[in-house]
Specification:
There is one protein chain. The protein is α/β, with parallel strands linked by helices and about 400 residues long. It folds into two domains: about 130 residues, Aspartate Aminotransferase, domain 1 (Alpha-Beta Complex); about 230 residues, Type I PLP-dependent aspartate aminotransferase-like (Major domain) (Aspartate Aminotransferase, domain 2). It is about 40% helix and about 15% strand. It has 15 helices and 13 strands. The strands form three sheets. It has a seven-stranded mixed sheet, sandwiched between helices. A four-stranded antiparallel sheet has the order 9-10-13-12. Strands 1-11 form a two-stranded parallel sheet.
Length: about 400
């Protein structure tokens, strides 16, 4: 794999040139990444030149609609799915909630769903509320020592054939272990169950080939993948047609409109094409394909290789300490670069102390109340979370490790 041109990469993100952010190392990317210049440009252009109702006969409107269509078409291709299988919504939380309402009517008496206690609340709460209507909700529980989700425990939950849907995360936003989505999806399919995967904490580290993963639904947030504040949902056509329409009745025959009850944000959908622009430019810059799914795969591999290289020294530094608890795997290959640690004191206080040293990080529960409790951590105390992406530099990592050592010394 070609080494990542970090100087070129950082030049694609306007935030790195902003005077107010100079001298700061950004380690709260799991809460939202910097947007790339391509997205900023498209969003600005839409608001200044195309901010009209799209798909009308006049030129500005036709261009606006074409840019929205472009975003859906290009991102769907990069995710390995059909264009109509990708829809936008105000957030992943909202998309999940709408999907849960459809599933509520799809399930029959005596059927069950499975959720985990490893998930962010957005992919747990909406499903658990189905129990209020008498639907059985089974919990696939993590290992309290490691945070790992054991597929054998899932198989036990599936054994009686009553489970119709399994909801789980590609990787947790505090544990960060990368779950075997394709293997889990195949297991569920063999037991007659559909799968819904929360990819919010994985997608910023390279768009997955959703078509190859074999899941029925895949959700993530564009604003964590260098884009605008939109939720993106892939729902495979056969499942989407089974579920009842949640949009306007006259849009029920259009798959990408079936689960969008509110009017879409035209400008942000159009700007999402800038994400595709960036992934293609990243691939091309490093000698890879310049368009489509092949460019997305190259970008994914470049990003993951850079992150693994930078992540291992941080994991080693944290794992060697006896004054904190590192959540999740100690090997970089097995996890995303989202690193949560339990400290003797509140995570938020540690984040404040790091901020004084130019480290932008976060502390708290990060809406991961269930996994923290399952691992014996008081959510009120929370954890310190250090999260980065491929645009993080080696110097940033060194600076973070030094700052963490300084905290221990003080």
């Amino acid at each position: 794999m070609t080494a990542l041109d970090i100087d070129w990469v950082r030049a694609q993100f306007p935030a790195f040139a902003v005077p107010a952010l100079q001298g700061q190392a950004f380690f709260e990317n799991a809460g939202g990444s910097y947007p790339c210049a391509q997205v900023v440009h498209r969003l600005t252009r839409f608001y200044t030149e195309r901010k009209v109702q799209p798909y009308a006969p006049y030129v500005a409107s036709q261009i606006a609609g074409a840019e929205m269509d472009e975003a859906r078409t290009r991102l769907a291709a990069m995710l390995g799915v059909a264009t109509e299988e990708l829809s936008f919504g105000p957030s992943t939380t909202a998309n999940t909630y709408v999907l849960a309402q459809a599933v509520r009517r799809w399930l029959r008496p005596g059927e069950a769903i499975v959720v985990t206690d490893q998930d962010h609340e957005a992919n747990s709460g909406p499903w658990r509320r189905l129990a209020d209507d008498g639907i059985e909700v089974r919990e696939w529980r993590l290992d309290p020592a490691t945070g790992h989700l054991d597929p054998e425990r899932l198989e036990e939950l599936l054994a009686d054939g009553r489970v119709r849907l399994v909801c789980f995360t590609h990787c947790s936003n505090v544990i960060a272990e990368i779950n075997d989505v394709s293997g889990i999806s195949a297991l569920c399919r063999a037991h007659g169950a559909r799968t819904c995967v929360d990819g919010v904490s994985y997608a910023p580290h390279g768009l997955p080939d959703v078509g190859a993963l074999g899941c029925d639904v895949y959700l993530f947030s564009a604003y964590k993948v260098f884009g605008p504040h939109q939720g993106i949902m892939v729902i495979r056509e056969d499942f989407g047609r089974e579920l009842p329409n949640q949009g306007h009745f006259f849009n029920g025959d259009v798959l990408y409109k079936r689960f969008t009850p509110a009017g879409p944000d035209h400008a942000q959908i159009a700007a999402s094409a800038g994400m595709a622009d960036y992934f293609e430019a990243l691939s091309s810059r490093h000698g890879g394909p310049s368009t489509g799914a092949a460019a997305a795969r190259m970008a994914h591999d470049l990003m993951r290789a850079q992150e693994v290289t930078l992540l291992q020294p941080l994991l080693d530094a944290l794992a060697s300490r006896n004054d904190l608890r590192l959540l999740g795997p100690t090997k970089a290959e097995n996890r995303a670069p989202t690193v949560a640690v339990e400290l003797p004191g509140p995570g938020e206080e540690a984040a404040r102390r790091l901020a004084a040293r130019g480290i932008m990080a976060g502390g708290g529960d990060f809406y991961a109340v269930r996994p923290l409790r399952a691992m014996g951590i008081d959510p009120a105390k929370g954890v310190l979370r250090l999260s980065f992406t491929h645009y993080t530099s080696e110097q940033d990592i060194d600076r973070l490790i030094d700052a963490l050592n300084s905290l221990r010394a003080s």
